[in-house]
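Hi support team,

I've been running sequence recovery on a batch of backbones for a student project. Most finish fine, but this one hangs at about 90% for roughly twenty minutes before it completes. I'm not sure whether the input is malformed or the queue is just slow. I've pasted the structure tokens below so you can try to reproduce it. Let me know if you need the job ID as well.

Thanks,
M.K.
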């Protein structure tokens, strides 16, 4: 997970207005007050599977859904049912019981039907215990595995990026995905604290995302085999590979595509665009949540900026400092939504013209899925899409096949964080 604020969450029970309404129990907890889920008219929300700690999703070309259990296990949903045996279990080598570490992301190769490649982001248990001690700290890594049938071979692991230090345990990010350019994109958080300084440089004092000699607080871009694309922004003199860890200060990591990010927990590619178009959901500190439109080599400002303003401010806003880029959309914590998580572009024509050009994002704290659509003046109009969802989600979200149609899948931890569900929102 990302750095989700710890607070008491209350699910408000409100009457249905101009929305479809579904009433369910709250995560199956005995004695829990029912929640009221509201969807647009004509939409349904169905539980597909119950899975422990479901934190990420991917879809294979043949319609299977791969579900990541944060503890280090991958499950398969096939023909609408959960396959009994795990596809992969590497939990013995994953740090997942402290803070926000674990197996956090998954992607399927564009040529999966031919090569069976699956990519996984996880916190590697490099030492016997998962500590904050810099001499024994876990590291995040990206590996490629091969899947045959419903089984992913642990022995097939090829490590593509390693040594991304998870010092404080939080802000690991962990999303993976392929752009239309065929390249693999990877999101990495700032680690919560600057590991080169220690516990005195945490939260807003952590400026490691501004350094180009490490992979913390970045979005990376590599080839499917782990190489550096020729058009990455930092190549040539003064640069080096960082696939085994940080490099000397003053040099730049060739893997970096974007930087100045706090915890870019989830991102999404636009299926409607002719070329690669990427939105990055960056979880904020105390004031703003933001969505960034990826521009090669751009600096999104953290820890100098948060949302459209100076860090921590709601008034010192506007044009960012030279060399920094504002988000395309943001919202304040005063809205009651405090931790942006998943994102997904709506495929044009799927749900009618009102959704064309739309982008869905979810918030872990207020348990909503919201929609933004272009307002015709270069900005966005925001509205609720699904509200009253289970406490603890949505965490991940993506469009994928649902029978003969396409639908929106999402995961939630629900009220018991050791349990969770995979849902699908569809139009009949």
């Amino acid at each position: 997970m990302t750095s989700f604020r710890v607070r008491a969450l209350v699910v408000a029970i409100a009457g249905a207005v101009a929305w479809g309404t579904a009433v369910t129990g709250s995560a199956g907890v005995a004695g829990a007050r029912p929640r009221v889920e509201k969807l647009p008219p004509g939409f349904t929300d169905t539980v597909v599977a119950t899975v422990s700690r479901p934190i990420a999703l991917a879809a294979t070309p043949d319609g299977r859904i791969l579900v990541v259990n944060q503890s280090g296990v991958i499950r398969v949903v096939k023909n609408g049912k959960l396959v009994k045996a795990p596809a992969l279990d590497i939990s013995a080598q994953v740090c997942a019981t402290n803070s926000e570490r674990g197996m956090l992301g998954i992607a399927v190769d564009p040529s999966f039907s031919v090569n069976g490649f699956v990519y996984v982001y996880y916190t590697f248990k490099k030492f016997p215990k998962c500590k904050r001690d810099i001499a024994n700290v876990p590291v995040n890594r990206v590996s490629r595995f091969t899947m045959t049938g419903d089984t992913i071979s642990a022995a097939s692991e090829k490590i593509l990026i390693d040594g991304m230090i998870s010092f404080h345990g939080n802000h690991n990010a962990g999303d993976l995905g392929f752009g239309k350019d065929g390249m693999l994109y990877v999101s990495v958080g700032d680690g919560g604290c600057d590991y080169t300084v220690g516990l005195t440089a945490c939260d807003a004092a952590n400026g490691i995302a501004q350094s180009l000699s490490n992979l913390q607080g970045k979005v990376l871009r590599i080839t499917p085999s782990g190489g550096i694309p020729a058009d990455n922004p930092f190549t040539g003199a003064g640069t080096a590979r960082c696939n085994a860890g940080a490099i000397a200060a003053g040099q730049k990591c060739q893997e970096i595509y974007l930087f100045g990010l706090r915890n870019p927990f989830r991102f999404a590619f636009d299926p409607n665009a002719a070329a690669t178009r990427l939105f990055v959901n960056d979880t904020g500190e105390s004031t703003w949540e933001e969505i960034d439109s990826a521009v090669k080599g751009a600096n999104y400002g953290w820890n100098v900026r948060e949302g459209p303003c100076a860090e921590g401010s709601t008034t010192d806003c506007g044009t960012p400092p030279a060399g920094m880029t504002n988000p395309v959309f943001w919202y304040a914590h005063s809205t009651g939504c405090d931790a942006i998580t998943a994102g997904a572009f709506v495929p044009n024509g799927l749900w009618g013209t009102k959704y064309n050009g739309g982008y869905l994002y979810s918030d872990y704290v207020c348990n909503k899925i919201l929609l933004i659509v272009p307002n015709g003046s270069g900005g966005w109009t925001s509205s609720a899409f699904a509200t009253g969802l289970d406490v603890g989600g949505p965490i991940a979200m993506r469009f994928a096949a649902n029978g003969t149609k396409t639908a929106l899948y999402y995961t939630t931890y629900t009220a018991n964080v050791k349990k969770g569900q995979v849902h699908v929102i569809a139009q009949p």
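--
Follow-up from support: It reproduced on our side and the slowdown came from queue contention, not your input. The radius of gyration is 20 Å. No action needed from you.
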